[in-house]
Amino acid sequence: MNLILHLLLDAAVIFGLAYVMPQVDVKNFGTALLIAVLLGLLNFFVGWLIRFPLNLVTFFLLTGVIRIVVTAIILKLIDKLLSSFTIRGFWPALVIALAVAVAGMLIDRSAPTPEMVESGYVALERIVAQLQLV
């Protein structure tokens, strides 16, 4: 469920920023969803190949910054792969990568932990929320 939420939010962020930024062009929301899927797959399979040497050079002190820069590089790679997605310049790709990282962080922080789900805290929280609405 969390993966689907991440993909939909990443697609919404990409599509929304394409609407706001004139340097970015996305054909439709389906294309933005495809970009989000490709971004996740390429980050998983290729991203670590780029991130690991860069993290070694910086002694793992700039891991977050390197992750955002590598995501921007992967977005530029997706730009070359898809004709319905264009990014003119590296800075817009960096802005999109930063926005996707912030959105992902917000989802991860608001998601309940497995311990919370097992203890019934989440179910109890929903019951209390429903009682307050009535």
UniProtKB/TrEMBL annotation:
<dbReference type="InterPro" id="IPR007165">
    <property type="entry name" value="Phage_holin_4_2"/>
</dbReference>
<feature type="transmembrane region" description="Helical">
    <location>
        <begin position="90"/>
        <end position="107"/>
    </location>
</feature>
<protein>
    <recommendedName>
        <fullName>Phage holin family protein</fullName>
    </recommendedName>
</protein>
<feature type="transmembrane region" description="Helical">
    <location>
        <begin position="57"/>
        <end position="78"/>
    </location>
</feature>
<keyword id="KW-0472">Membrane</keyword>
<keyword id="KW-0812">Transmembrane</keyword>
<feature type="transmembrane region" description="Helical">
    <location>
        <begin position="28"/>
        <end position="50"/>
    </location>
</feature>
<dbReference type="Pfam" id="PF04020">
    <property type="entry name" value="Phage_holin_4_2"/>
</dbReference>
<keyword id="KW-1133">Transmembrane helix</keyword>
